[in-house]
Each structure stands twice: as C-alpha cells, then as structure tokens.
Design goal:
Elements lengths: L6 H6 L2 E7 L6 H11 L8 H7 L8 H4 L3 H7 L3 H17 L2 E8 L11 H20 L2 H4 L7 E9 L8 H9 L5 H21 L5 E7 L11 H9 L3 E6 L5 H9 L5 E4 L17 H14 L3 E4 L1 H7 L11 H6 L4 E3 L11 H12 L3 H13 L7 H21 L8
Parallel strand pairs: 1-2, 2-3, 3-4, 4-5, 5-6, 6-7, 7-8
Helix pairs in contact: 2-5, 6-7, 10-11, 17-18
The structure holds zinc ion.
Zinc ion binds next to β1.
Length: about 400
C-alpha cells in the first residue's frame, strides 16, 4: 500500500541540507536590492523577470544553470551583503524545519581589494550564527521539547576559473601568467586549504570540509589531488561534486584520490556507458564493485533531484533518476537542494518529490532523513553529535506518532 504523508508532517520533521550553495540560494528580492546598492546590472529588476530570464524551471545544460551565479556572486562582495544573505539563508532553512545544514561556497569568489578571505568567511559565519542563536532561543527549543539547530561551512575550491570571475581570480591569473592553467587552479585550491586551517584553528569558524565545484567536463578532480591531501592530513572532511556530468570513474577518483567522505550528486554512478577508460573491460562489474564499496563504507551520496533534472534534461522523468537504484542498493543517500533559488526548491519540496516519485516507505524515509544527521560533518565533538542525533531521532519518531505515520522497517 502506498504510504501518504501530509505536507505538514514533512514540514515538521527535523531535516538536513548537506549540499546547498549559499550563492545559489540568495532570495531574489535580496538580489535585486543588493544589485541596486552595488550598481550591478541585472537582466531584470523584478522577481518575475529574473525568474523568467535567469532562475528558470528548466535549463539546457549545467553551463546554463551556472549562469545565474554571475549575478549572485557580483552582489556578494561586501561583509554586509554576505552577512545578510547568510542570515536570511539560515532563517529560510529553519522556517521549513531544517535543523542542520552545511552551507558551501567558494570564498575566493568573494575576495577583493576591500575584503580578504578571513572577512569573507567571518561575515558569512556571523550571519549564520546570529540566525541560529535566534532560532535556538525560541520557546520550543529552550524548553527542550525540540532539538536545536546547528550548522557548518564547507569551502569550495573551483575546478577552474577564468578572467572576470572574481577580483581574486583575476589577480591570481595575472600573477601566474606563465604557468599552465591547470597548475594555477590547483595552486588556488592549495591556498584555500591553507586558509581553511587558519579559519578553523585560529578563528574558531566551523569550516568542516573541502569540496570542489564548477563545470566537471574537462576538469578532472585529480588535478586538485594535493589540495585534498592537505585537507585530509589536517582532519578536514571531503565531499566532491562527482558524477554530475561525468561517469562512475569520476566518483571512483573522488573516493580513491581525493578521499571523499561524501559524493555530491553521484547521479551517473550506474552509467556504464560513460566509462571512458579502455582498460576497464567489464563495465558492469566495475560499477558493481564501486557500488559495493560505497555501500559498505557508507559513503553518502548527496542527491539533488530537482537540480539533476534541470542540468540533465535528458532524464526527462524523475522516476528514471538513479535515486531509485541507489535506494535498492541500500546506499547511504541524503536529499539536498543544491541551490534553493537557482533550482527553485526547498528541502521539503525535495522530500515530497522523492516520496511521490519513488513511493518511499515510512521506514526508508526515516532512514534517509536520519542519515542526513548521522553522515553530517557535525562541527562539535562526536559525543555531542551522538546525543544530538538521538534527540533528533526521538523528535522524528514523535512527529511520526503524532501524524500516524508508521515507522515499520523497509
Ligand atoms: Zn552543488
């Protein structure tokens, strides 16, 4: 029998978002205001106009999808703008019942002559911390009736960057005029990890992991191997955008060479036809082995359904998304938004989509939600994480009981 869940139940249960980009989640109204202040020209100055021209329902490619970031990054160049957007982002999450998020962004896109990387990340953290403190002071949390909210920050290195992407990257390219571009991209990643060490260890900012973002095609993850080694050796967690535009080999590389604890998207995990290495004779077996490894090591896949449908128009029908098989193979998966604004979605919407398309049983839904908390890069001691997850589970089960949602095992 098909399980049904009310919209209110989905809103009430404690949720996570482990894969969400700050610059892709700015409120459209805020973008318009900030653009006016910073004199950044937008293709339209209305919500409707921007939703029509930039933040679309469907995109033709990942490249087109990434276009909107040009505008959001352009307005996020002052401490005030960064703090405001971070603050609003956190509240947008809390209002729909997200209790834990790990927000990611590429700090180097926001460095300019007036703000260094410390200012960039501290400003974002200030906004997040203020909103979280306010939320945690509400009666339901203070009384202990509901679990409190926490957050962490993931720093994104860019697979590649070009002139005009940010003042920092412009300068970086100019200063390394005679070096190969791939080497320059990697140098910037290494520099980012060095900065992350200072941000975490000296400034106490909850930067927990390194990620690599940007177009996959032509920019393989192993170009950034030393940066991920450095992060690994400094006890940072690693999550890697992989298998979004490339096949299983890019996921394999992310795990074996970049030490990935989680995989962003992983959409093409089962796409044997995308394997390019001629030495892999038995493609089915390769994917099976990779899948077994991911399952057994509990490497979590950050699934972003709406975003995948938007950047891979050939999927056409959500029911053909690899998420179905990921669940059948008992992989550890978590549902994420990727970009609240660029993908026009919320965590609740992603969960509702998954329930509808894949007929999730109450037990499976509960596993997926709880995995988000368990496989998070929680920025506090493990004992605290365990206690927090326990409170979250109790609260979830309380919601399930209150809404009459059975939690029998799948
Ligand atoms: Zn992403």
């Amino acid at each position: 029998m098909r399980a049904t869940y009310s919209a209110e139940f989905i809103r009430r249960i404690p949720k996570t978002d482990l894969h969400v980009h700050l610059d892709g989640s700015i409120r459209v109204s805020t973008l318009i205001e900030l653009a006016r202040e910073a004199r950044v020209a937008l293709p339209s100055e209305t919500d409707e106009g921007l939703n029509h021209l930039v933040f679309k329902d469907c995109y033709n490619s990942l490249e087109e999808y990434l276009q909107g970031f040009k505008y959001t990054v352009a307005v996020l160049q002052t401490p005030e703008a960064l703090e405001r957007v971070a603050y609003e982002f956190a509240w947008d999450n809390f209002r729909e019942g997200v209790r834990y998020f790990e927000v990611r962004f590429a700090p180097q896109l926001h460095i300019n002559a007036r703000q260094n990387i410390e200012t960039v990340v501290e400003s974002v953290n200030r906004g997040l911390a203020r909103a979280t403190k306010e939320f945690n002071e509400t009666e339901a949390i203070r009384s202990g009736a509901e679990p409190e909210a926490h957050y962490a920050i993931i720093a994104c290195a860019m697979r590649a960057f070009f002139k005009g992407m940010s003042e920092y990257y412009n300068a970086f390219l100019e200063l390394h005029r005679f070096s190969k571009h791939k080497r320059i991209y990697h140098l910037a990643s290494l520099e980012l990890v060095q900065a992350m060490i200072k941000l975490r260890d000296e400034l106490g900012i909850p930067v927990v992991a390194l990620d690599i973002a940007g177009p996959e095609a032509g920019f393989p993850p192993h170009d950034h191997e030393d940066a991920f080694d450095l992060a690994h050796h400094n006890f940072f967690k690693k999550t890697v955008h992989a298998g979004e535009a490339y096949g299983p080999e890019s996921i394999f590389e992310a795990i074996t060479r970049l030490h990935a604890d989680r995989i962003g998207h992983g959409y093409h995990l089962f796409s044997t036809e995308l394997i390019t290495d001629a030495s892999i004779r038995d493609r089915e077996r390769y994917v099976r082995n990779l899948c077994e490894y991911i399952a057994d090591r509990r490497i979590t896949i950050e699934v972003c359904l709406t975003s995948n449908l938007q950047t891979n128009p050939q999927i056409a029908d959500i029911r053909r998304h690899a998420f179905q098989r990921m669940c059948e193979e008992r992989l550890s998966v978590t549902l994420c938004t990727d970009n609240r604004t660029v993908s026009k979605t919320t965590v609740s919407r992603e969960i509702a989509l998954a329930i509808e398309a894949f007929d999730l049983s109450p037990g499976l839904l509960r596993d997926i939600i709880i995995y988000g908390f368990k496989r998070s890069f929680f920025p506090r001691p493990y004992r605290e994480k365990r206690a927090y997850v326990r409170r979250v589970i109790d609260f979830y089960d309380g919601c399930a009981a209150a809404w009459g949602v059975g939690i029998q095992r799948r």
